[in-house]
Design a protein that fits this description.
The chain has 220 residues and is of the alpha/beta class. It has four helices and 13 strands. The protein is globular, with a radius of gyration of 17 Å.
Length: 220
Amino acid sequence: MKRRLDRNEMAKRAALELKSGDYVNLGFGMPNLVADYADKGVIFQTENGAIGYGPLVPSTDKESADFHYHDAIGRFWVPAPGMAVFDVLTSFAMIRGGRMIAVLGGLQVSEKGDLANWNTGGPQGGIIGGAMDLAFGAKTVIVTMGHTTKHGKPRILNKCTLPMTAKECVDLIVTDLALIEVTPKGLVLKEVAPGWTAKEVQALTEPELIVSSDLKEMRL
């Protein structure tokens, strides 16, 4: 069986889309790992009320963490010169202002860029949180997720079958097999994981992919 990218590799590839000066909010789970690989000039914002903080405290060094300083996901950070703290209302005004880049996890993405990421459809339902505001209010939405479910079913679909987070909001999809851009003409396959072909990625993707004329191996 061919090797897929692991969570850290997907986060590292997503981080390459961020540049110094970008304002970025990271979602729960894999997106949170992006901070470990992003350019030092990237400005992170957390919905519980801080911006411009950093660096993050390594997960292996919790003893040095200050429990007053953590993001909405519970990851600790170090105060930085010039950072700001504020109330949640101000935070969500930033999130809804169209200036933020959001890196979010996903359960499903449709060919039009619809996102489902808050409810698995099971009996326990899901949790409505900041993802709705981020998906709708960010200027750019990058989704990181496995290309298929644990049962091998596609997560990139013609139409989402799980409860929707936001419609036509996703700009870029980073999976363990590919980097795919959402465009008005359809889903453009830009990069494939090392050792994989466009045909193999297509076989695990429901919508028809537009293979980029300069298809590359994923940059890591």
